[in-house]
Here is the input.
Amino acid sequence: MYSEWASLSSLIHNGNEENFSVLGKFPMAEGKTVAISVVKHLAGNLGISQAAEPSPLTTDREVLWCMEVVCFGLSLPLSEHDTIRDCVFVYCEWLSALHPIPKISVPKPVCEDPNLYARKMINHFHNLFVPRKGEAWPFLYLDLGHDVINRQAVLCHRVLRTLQTLAQVSNRMNRETWESLLLFLLAINDTLLGPPTVKDDVGDQLCERVLSVLFEVWLLACSRCFPSPPLWKTFREMCMNWRHRMALIEQWNRANLVLTSKLLEFMYGPSFPELKVSEEDAQLIPCGMGNDCVAQAWFRFLHCIGNPVDLCHPAIISQTQKFLQFAITSEDVVDPYQHPCLTQLPKIFSKAIRGIAVLVDSFLGIAQPYMDEGSSEKKESSSHPSSATHSPTPPPQRRLAKSFSVAPSSAIKGMPKASLIGLTSGRTTTSHSATTTNSGPSSTSSLSSVLSTLGQDTRPPLAPARPKCNSILHMFGEWLFEAAHIGCHGSSHISDNSRLGEASTKRPSSLLLDGSVRKSIGSGNSLGIQGMMVNASPSFSPASSQPASLNDATELPPSLTIEKFESGRAEALGALCRIFCAKKTGEEILPVYLARFYLALQQGLKIPEDKSGDARICGEVLSSIILNSSDLFRLDLDGVQVLVPYVLDALEVVLPDKELSPKSPYVSKTELRRASIHILLSMLVLPLHFQTLPIRELSTGSDKNYTPLTFIQLKPRLMNLLINALQVESDPQNTQMLLGGLLLSVQDAAAYEEMEQGIQLDQGQDTPSNLLSSASDTMSSHSLSDYRSLTEDLPELQEGDAAFGNLYYDYPCRLSKNSAHALFVQATYLVCHRLMSSWKSDLNVSLAALELLAGLARTHIRKTDDLECKRAVKWLCDYVAQQCSRPPPAHSKDLHSSIVAAFQTAATWLSAHPFLLHDKECLTTVLEVVELGISGTKSQGKPGEPIKMKEEKELKPASMRVRDAAEALLTVILEQVGYFPSPCGAESLSSLLDEAALLRHCRSPSSLTPPFHRNCSNSILNEQYKGSSPLHHFRYFVIENSTMLALLEEPLGVADEQDSQPTVTLLIRGPFGRHAWSMQLRHLPRHKSGSKYHAPNPGRPIPMGEAPVRSDIKPRYFPESVDRIPLCKVDHSIPSLESTFVEDEKSSMEHSHLARLMERQVAAEAAAVQKSKALLEQIRDSGGQVECTPPPVCHEFQTARLFLSHFGFLSSESLKEPLNSPIAPLMALDINQTGFSNDLETLDGISCRTCDTVHLFYVRARQKTAEEILANVNSSSTVNPHFLEFLSSLGWPVSVHKHSGWSGHVSTSWRVTESQSGFDLPVSDHGGSLYNGESKVLYWADVNSEIAFVVPTLKSQKFMDTISTDGSLTSGDLSSGPASFDRSFSDKSYITPVPVPPEKPMRTFSLDLERQQQLAQQDGSVTCSAGSGASCNPNEIMPPAPPPPTRQKRLGRQGPGSLYTSGGDTKVLVIWLESFEDWIHVPIGDLLNSMVTGLEGGARPNERESFVIFLHALQTGLLRVKLQGPSGRMTIATPLVDGMVVSRRVLGTLVRQTSLNMCRRRRLENDTYHPPHVRRRLKIQEMTQKYMIKMSEPELYTYLFSSPPS
Here is the structure.
């Protein structure tokens, strides 16, 4: 840079003639006498002890003579302190001549020509800093001379302060004066700092102060009078002579940091993250310093110490004149590089490289915060004592020097420390306060303060406007690469002599590579990388800059061995990793840089052995690489896969070691393991993705028989590493990340095997071959083949569970094949046991483990053993029992949340594996846990305890939430296990029939409807139009205040006179849905009902011809002999009946009335007898016969009363009101009250499962507006084909208007609605817009939840505008279908039925009642328009739509959507990014406007409360995941982890499971949330209170015997 300019070093070394006084020609005594007398007089006029007076010196000659005296006085021995002090005072006062207002004591000639005299005075000041001849400096620092040197130091500081102030305030200094001042500062620095450091010498005392003044004045000169090239060259040469001083590197870092802050400000604008420095350092840059001046000064200061890597070479640092002089005169030092002061070089080297790393971070936008000096030094000294002693300047004299100190960066500490430099804080506030690392390293590691997703960190993100990696490497790459290679063996070295001068290396970007090499590297071929490394340039040798002296350990002192420089090398490698991990999408990095980087990582990842030779440690270099390489395999770095084996070796050192002790005290063990897990999660899918692709070695050496390793061979090692890491991990966040990776591995292996099996079946192969099992046979030597490493904690795992037994002993044979089944077994065993032993007390880890178990239950594994599934369910039940049995102080919301999640997981296992309930032991275990959850205790206690019956137990569940979860599990067992999905499909757990549908199939003419009985009487139609509702044909009762019964007493189907049985049809509305049942009272089984046990016409028997003998006998009450017995007095003791009425008039009247009734009855009976006799005589006279005929068959039954009676609801005990409730077990409802039908519709609109919605978006490169993003999915040409593949893997497409489940919006959910014109038209070309919610959505459901996937578009957003701003439905939405039972019959007419086309599949369990209602015209008529685009199918069933939600009981002040969610709607966005860096620009807030679901409850969607899953497709075909979400204790959901790399095979499954788990965790965290069945129960209770009919027992019986009201 300055090769064509002459240096001024000789002028500094030889001295300036102006520094010598003429008094020096005379003896010291005479000169001393003159100086003392003259200087004393001059100082008297300065105003120190008395008022200042004008100087008596009026001519130049007088002034010059006095200056000769002062010059000599400054060189007097230090014993003449007063004289030297007066000389300093005189010159300091006279230098004010350059100030805007000179002082009064300044001589007139000096004021007239201040620059001339100032230059002389500055040169004379040099004598103050020069050691005196014949005077040894060290003696002054003994106790006897300590006061003297302190006084002399004060004078030096006074001079430096004066000169610094002069440079700051003077506006009269010309170029010559500036150059003289800079040369003076260079000279005194060289005088004090050039010699080798001796503890407590003057250079050691003043080094920081003189250096700080030099750098600060030099920066001022750059602004006022830019130094000439000779001065810059001299400055560089002098600094290179002082590199053995720690203070030089500190001041160099300080100046670089301040200049970089200003440089970034004008280069990248205000939006670039600001590099903050202290206020004191910020003042070093003058306000008027131009941008060009800043850039020039920045570059020159950066190179002023030469190559920083020279600091690790003692031979180079000691090759100075003063080191050579010291070696010649010293008896202890033979070679210059053996001087004791050079033992500080490792710390100096580390600090220099650390400063460069900070500059690199500044350009990336991730520099760490600068804190005040006190906290910085306190923390550094406490954590690293050796670094606190590197600068012995006394505290009072280190004011400015202490203002900058580069502390160990996060690459070494593993976490941000208060002593780190430079805070990046955006000057402009953006909509994304949630910031995470963008492709940054682990020290910046992948997450934000607002993101509470896994792997999160508080480091700021990479700056979007950061320079390209090539640009940063052009500037700092040569130094960093060279520093990263120090200590590497096996490479040729350059001689020391070639390194002594200024090294002018060729910039890597100018290296010419062969075209084939570039092409191979660009395609990611690892062979191309290897060939380029060999052929590109000889300067690539890893240790090309390393001198031989550094390799010869015998010649260097122990403190200068290469191991001592490991800290600086770690900093360099960490900075390189951060640079390469900052690669943007589509950015190209020069192959030469990639090659050197891969070589550096290969050397750095080598595991050193300790002195024993059998243990591996995690040194500073390895820690730095791991902490800063989290994104290494998440980017499209060409050929990066060649590093996979080396990185895997390093991870096998860190993760399986439970007692890992990092070598560096600044490395956090937890952060190191977290960074290792991030890297591991980005490697898990590589083996199955690349399969048998070979991994080329970077250098194979001379081994011709070398066989490259394939990716599939790494599968066993990765799985063993994952299992081992999970087994020993203790940090909760790290554990959750590993659990996510474990589920990814199991599901990816299962999907791969299923795909492989399908391919083999297509090819007709009889014997399937498992690529995974074949790979394990060639397991590399690095794999943990001894499985005992996986089970070394086996006794701990087996503790407390004897049933676990010998399960692990048959494990190695399973794991050796490494199939999906083996991973499934291993994951189940390990997770269940750690869940029971060590994870149960941590909510988040417990939830993650339960989410993994739920994911395993849904994973299709071939050859799944029943015993394994049974044990998994038993472990879940044991976990619930163990949690419930914890002491009362341990019961908290978190504990109950984990129990609720365990119940949900058990339901998932049972529904996925119905055969488990066929096992008696498993069924007993599950039901015992359900009983425990509902009642709080088990009937069967400990062995030996008596069984508690139900009536003996007191209901004390752990909490109401636990009871509700147990009830839900019990319902799943009784209703869904083995029957889900039902023939209706997974979209509905309830019956699709309602009152209107049932009435259309009644036999009774009083309820038949025209579409099915067109020939019936017109009175039916008249009844319809009179306003009759189908509800009036039903009787409504509520049982146990939780179940609503709608009883229809009219039989269904076609009338059958031969088989007319008492029939009742029930619509049962309970907490878990609506169910339809039809019951018949039969005296015989159905298969015997048609049998006849008598002849069809037995005929009349032949009558007997003989007339019977008739005798008229009058019946008597007593025998005749009684009349002959005479009466006695006793017989008259009983009065006659008539005598009793004589005295009682009322009794007499009653007797008379009773007598009249008897007479009337006697007369009526006599008349009936006479009529009967007359009829018989008439028949007998006509010769006819009387035939006996059976009574007619009864067709009218009061089946509602029979049903209630037979089921025990009408017993006296059942009808009594319980003591603890004002509501009887059986209550009738009054359907005539206003609002009953609307409430009934509302109840049917509350789903019995949770409903969630995920909205998907596609973001093309550099798109920042919602309109652009929503328009991308209109065509397949504007989206990635893999995006459409991903959509198809999320769920199955359903038609919104024919779908009876959740469809993404309440207006179209849980009902079949009318299709608006054009909505059902097929779309031939789309990019996902087909699933925008208007006509179709993607849908998935299980027994517990249902989820809709919607791809919003601009068209769908306009459609959502019809929804009111508070989330409720508009009037048009409510009238779009048969939304009211009252309207079903009164406001609609029916259409002639149209046959269903043969190609259209019948809807099972719908009784073919599907019908299509038309919109009412203005005249009230109903027509079917053929051109409307909507089919007029009268056979389509239309379940009722949910009405406008109302405020729910006990649910607090919720909005309209509270009936459905009772806790708010969780917004989940899945965003596909073409450019990963665009994640920070995605307008989440604007996209939320297109995500209306009707469940918002009147609240405006909050961006901070939304979950975002970013997906970015890599060039390898894999996908990178980034998560963003609200902060919270329970929002970290798995299996997806921030930064995870997944395959396309399992992407849809993982996204769906993560979305469901996010929503479930959010519901668990919400205190106001009620499960769906609880909300339905509350609605039933509300309706009971509102519509119940209070009747006594006789009134209820009377009500049952009467006909239903019509």
Remarks:
- The mean pLDDT is 75.
- The chain has 56 helices and 18 strands.
- The CA atoms of residues 1261 and 1475 lie 5 Å apart.
